[in-house]
Write a structure and sequence with these properties.
heterotrimer; A mainly alpha; B mainly alpha; C mainly alpha; B: Helix Hairpins; about 0% strand; C: mainly alpha; globular
Chain lengths: ~160, ~100, ~350
């Protein structure tokens, strides 16, 4: 059962991911990206990371991809029919990527990972929250500052003056 | 029962798709999308390792939260730059943006 | 008494006795889905008629009177009419996206019902991340609106879609933050646990400990559901009808359906988090079944939403955005800080 769900999700992710990088219409790519990220959220649920799955849907689907669709809508040139969508590199890029993929898969299958047979603490929200406020408080604060800076930076860059 | 290798291979495939898009797309928004795919493959790795290697401290999930936050920041700034380029120079193709080079 | 939980338990036992486990899972999944769909459809049929009556009486009219007693069959007549309509697809439309947009909208509206407790034990699945799940899954509405606006290939649709997406995203922020106060007090995200903590007399309801949070939530949720005073995206007078202007027949009906479903969703969240969910306001009223209390509170909340719609004028786009970012957001932060102090002190 679990393996079946994994294969369905993996198929969704891989197919929609491929469509993201190959579709001619960039708006369709954005929609496929949403599907792909939703599939990744499913993978998180399969990995018992329910909080992370909700955050993934909330931030990626509700935030990042919507921003991208906005950017696509205000730049009409992206969705026209005539423009080329690829540079001159797809064939060499594809070959290199294929060899990289083979290398990765071979190294993953040959490595013996020490899999621990323990259960994770189940309401993960409380554990993550406590860790963010104790052990990881410095990275947490840094990320907050980064987000603030990015927010102000984006407004300053994109505003019409 | 899906093992760690299943997740790692899925994430490797997703990462490679992302890199391919990054290398071959011409327009800036497409490249940003490819970067998001790569971020997600890294996140799958984080969570999978956290679940299978060291389940009781959830370090991988915490790092994934950070990665998602950084991805949001990156997308905001990147898209602001794309919109600005479009408005000022009417282009979104990355390989035409070479004013800084002579 | 008239609790519904034992009935479902009996059905579950019956299924377990005649079917293997795998099929029980499948049957119960589809069964609950069908029940939720049916219940929600009945609510929507009722809401459409009710909204017409409420608006009519607020404007000293009668509203629909001819079909059935006080026009109660009006919605069904409307539905039959919509089914007969020609299903138009604009020539330049992006067909696949155009067809999928209403489906995404509809599904996103329904997925929220997984974690809403309609009564004691009447919940599809009590998730650990309950309320977060609802906030996350309803963001798909934004995607569907953008899809509809873009695929119709019509500038009014595009403008309407972008406006509503911008509005929903902006109000999503104060909405999520306003719920954090309740989550801080309850120390859980699970809907059932939050309701259980509000047992007893009505002063145990979280609205009395989180008045500011409730106000922010209710205003933001009204905006989130695109209801008047915040219905800029479908301002009929200036934008024709917003993102759904090119849709006709059943596809239009699906958007409409989703809108009313969202109205019920925000009322259900308000009732669950702030008004004690299925609990009676006083312990001695417990003889009335829990689901009646829940539905009654929801209907009251929906009535208030309708009341808003027929009382307030529409606000301008810039006022709308300024209100979200300059007033609601700081208010939500103030609420969180006050709640923190409150928890620290008591």
């Amino acid at each position: 059962m679990e393996l079946g769900v994994f294969y369905i999700l993996a198929a969704v992710i891989v197919v929609s991911g491929l469509l993201v990088v190959t579709l001619k219409n960039i708006f369709h790519s954005a929609l496929m990206l949403i599907l792909c990220l939703f599939g990744v959220a499913g993978i998180y649920i399969l990995l018992h990371a329910d909080f992370l799955a909700a955050v993934q849907v909330l931030l990626y689907v509700g935030g990042v991809t919507i921003l991208m669709i906005f950017a696509i809508m205000v730049t009409h040139q992206l969705t026209g029919k005539k423009i080329k969508h690829y540079n001159e590199q797809p064939v060499p890029a594809g070959l290199i990527i294929l060899s990289l993929l083979i290398l990765l898969i071979v190294s993953i299958t040959r490595t013996a990972f020490e899999v621990a047979d323990k259960a994770e603490p189940m309401p993960t929200v409380a554990v993550i929250g406590r860790a963010l406020m104790t052990d990881y408080v410095l990275p947490f604060e840094v990320v907050s500052v980064v987000l603030l800076v990015a927010l102000i930076g984006a407004i300053v860059i994109a505003r019409r003056d | 029962m899906a093992t760690l290798e299943h997740y790692l291979i899925l994430s490797a495939i997703l990462f490679c798709i992302g890199v391919f898009g990054l290398l071959s797309r011409r327009n800036a928004v497409g490249i940003l999308m490819s970067i998001e795919l790569m971020f997600n493959s890294a996140n799958i790795n984080f969570v999978a390792f956290s679940k299978f290697i060291n389940p009781d401290i959830l370090t991988g999930q915490i790092f994934s939260v950070f990665v998602i936050a950084i991805a949001a920041a990156e997308a905001a700034v990147g898209l602001a730059i794309v919109v600005l380029l479009y408005r000022n120079f009417d282009i979104v193709n990355i390989d035409k943006i070479n004013f800084m080079k002579w | 008494m008239l609790e519904l939980r034992p009935i479902f338990d009996a059905i579950g036992e019956f299924l377990n006795s005649i079917l293997p486990e795998f099929w029980v899972t499948i049957v119960s999944a589809f069964g609950t889905g069908a029940i939720i769909l049916g219940v929600a459809s009945v609510f929507v049929l009722f809401f459409v008629w009710w909204e017409r009556k409420v608006s009519a009486h607020m404007q000293q009219r009668y509203g629909p009177m001819r079909t059935g007693w006080h026009g109660w069959l009006q919605t069904i007549a409307d539905g039959v009419k919509l089914l007969q309509k020609e299903d138009l697809i604009p020539r330049d439309a992006d067909k696949l996206v155009y067809l999928f947009a209403p489906v995404v909208c509809f599904v996103a509206a329904f997925l929220a019902y997984v974690t809403i407790p309609f009564g004691e034990g009447l919940i599809v699945q009590d998730l650990n991340i309950g309320i977060l799940y609802i906030i996350a899954i309803t963001t798909f509405t934004v995607v569907s609106l953008l899809m509809a606006g873009w695929a119709s290939h019509n500038k009014w649709s595009l403008l309407g879609g972008m406006r509503s997406a911008a509005q929903i995203i902006s109000y999503e922020v104060p909405l999520s933050l306003s719920l954090i106060g309740v989550i801080m007090i309850a120390e859980t995200l699970s809907m059932v646990s939050i309701v259980v903590q509000q047992e007893g007399w009505f002063w145990n309801w979280y609205v009395f400990r989180q008045p500011l949070g409730f106000i922010v939530y209710y205003i933001a949720a009204t905006a989130e559901a695109n209801r008047t005073p915040f219905d800029i995206p479908e301002a009929e007078q200036e934008l024709v009808a917003g993102y759904n202007v090119e849709y006709s027949g059943m596809k239009w009906a699906m958007f409409f359906f989703a809108e009313y479903i969202n109205m019920l969703t925000i009322s259900a969240i308000a009732v669950t988090l702030f008004f004690g969910g299925w609990h009676a306001p006083a312990p001695f009223l417990d003889f009335i079944p829990s689901w009646i209390w829940f539905v009654g509170k929801c209907l009251l909340s929906v009535f208030v939403l309708m009341w808003f719609r027929w009382t307030y004028p529409r606000v301008r786009v810039d006022q709308l955005m300024a209100f979200a970012w300059k007033f609601m957001l700081p208010l939500a932060f103030v609420n969180i800080i006050l709640t923190g102090f409150g928890i620290y002190l008591f």
